[in-house]
Specification:
Helices cover 17% and strands 31% of the residues. The chain is an alpha/beta fold. The chain has three domains: 128 residues, Sandwich (Immunoglobulin-like); 335 residues, Glycosidases (TIM Barrel, Alpha-Beta Barrel), CATH 3.20.20; 133 residues, Jelly Rolls (Sandwich). It has an eight-stranded parallel beta barrel, surrounded by six helices. It is globular and about 90 Å long. Alpha-L-arabinofuranose binds next to loops.
Length: 648
Amino acid sequence: MKKIRPSRRAARASVSITVLADQPGAKINRAMWGLFFEDINFGADGGLYAELVKNRSFAFENPLMGWAKISPSLAQGTLSVLQEQPFDAANPRYVRLQSEGTAFFGIANEGFRGMGLRKGETYDFSVRIRGVSGAPVVHAQLYGADGALLASTSLRDFSSKWEERAVSLRPAETDPKGRLQIVLEGKGTVDLDRVSLFPRRTWKNRPGGLHADMVKILADMKPGFLRFPGGCIVEGSVLERRYQWKNTIGPVEKRKPLVNRWNYEFIHRPAPDYFQSFGLGFFEYFQLCEDIDAEPMPIINCGMACQFNSGELCPMEDLHIYIQDALDLIEFANGPVGSGWGAKRAAMGHAKPFKMKLLGIGNEQWGPQYIERYSRFAKVLKEKHPEIQLISAAGPLPEDERFKFIWAKLRELGNADIVDEHCYANPVWFFANNHRYDKYDRNGPKVFMGEYAAQSVAMVSVKNRNNLECALSEAAYLTGLERNADVVRMASYAPLFGHAEAWQWTPNLIWVDNLRIYGTPNYYVQQLFSRNRGDVVLPLQLAGIRKSSSGIENLYASAVRDDRTGEIILKVVNPGSSQISATINVPGASRIGSGAETVLTGSSLQDVNSFEEPKRVAPKTRALKTFRSGSIHDFPRFSMTVIRFKAR
Ligand code: AHR
């Protein structure tokens, strides 16, 4: 090993970081840093799923939720909700508009806290329509929040049989709070169902597809995996309301909406208009994974409803139904076109398998009831699909009795692959637990840190903020995960999206409103880890580290090697209020070349990003031309730094 002679400047550095480049450690999972997606905070409907019409099939519990009657004073007409001879027996409700023709008469949809409309962009309107009497003209119109007409088009000559009509609209102005209006001109009656409005610009411009900007910000993270569809939404408050993937595939109009459990979960954040349309269903999730090159990680219900709600249990003698769902899901994702479920996938336009390798059994379950159910799943799945890695639950907290019980039992069972740990705690917990995995038993199941986020105030406090302190505490914690990549195989922040006017839970990684989107400081931490993943852990020694009474260290670091580029990647977090100068030694590297440094920092630990200042806390990169072993590097206060340099 090459000896490094400390220079006089080095003697002035308070800390030294030594990367043992010639002693590579564990291989890092390609899918180490990923995404947790759940339809919470209007993440799917009103979010990632680009549909702008809320309750498009009149299938919510209140069939007219989201809709309002348009009936100016001179108008005479009736609006009724009917089911006879529906367009689709699976979603039988539709609306009948009967107008006397004295004035425009119809309905308007408010969208998801308004409809975000952009001047110059095209919006595709479609409707299932049936003429009942007369020959009215139907106008489809977009209005701004101030009542200005932004776009209008008309439909006429309706058949007495249901038919689909589609037209496009181009708003004259941008408006984050637009609405869609459908009005009849002239005397007559029509039936309407499946009223839809999509931006033409979706992700990959797929008709009826996903929100282009929301997918792009995910793709920009280069995530290793995507966990879906949650979260507690998998479990349901009662089993009848659990997420059932089979109800989310096939023709979109056949997918029966279900109330979203975040509709009523928090009485302090009610969302009575929150339902799941399943327009974003399991096929679309798999397709999204493929698009952004992320491993699909579906989570299925294990026969237990949410234990924070009813905790309803599926009787053991009926558990085979749930296990069959899991087997069928594997066939849907990976089976040949000739198999029953593989054929359904092919019919949806994807003959090639999705190559799913991971499957979560339950979300955040605990107790002997979980172990009993997990064992049954594992027995069947391990026998029939040994190629699938199973992810098991470990309760909601990272160190309580429930957690310890589950871990002990899973170790005993011997057939658990990966255990899903969850942690929502204050920033101090994340700083102080940097060494949590240093002592983990290497022989048992691996760890998936499946949900975590630092809470600036307290768990489920509405005052929680995505501030720099939380982001740095997570960054510090992740250096510990990275150093222990032999035992921690994957990690994902939760939740992913929050709609600024429709959230139930905060903090969230990415915030959106109807037209805008921004990544939080926490998002940039995730991005820095994911985009600088590396292939092999390099051992690292730190000298000069001081610890506060609450367990916060003055500097955190980890190092990896990127085999493709031949670079060493060093990640350093300085959470303190003073700059730290550190000597960086790289014994064992014979030739060190130029590099680059990316710094994420702010002026205060309370700094946050916002729609107005989306990049207040965002990474900045500069070249490091003179980087060499033994040089002193300055790490700014309140910062995370990633240094990449060539080394042999
Ligand atoms: O991320 C929000 C919720 O927190 C998830 O749905 C659940 O798994 C956890 O309790």
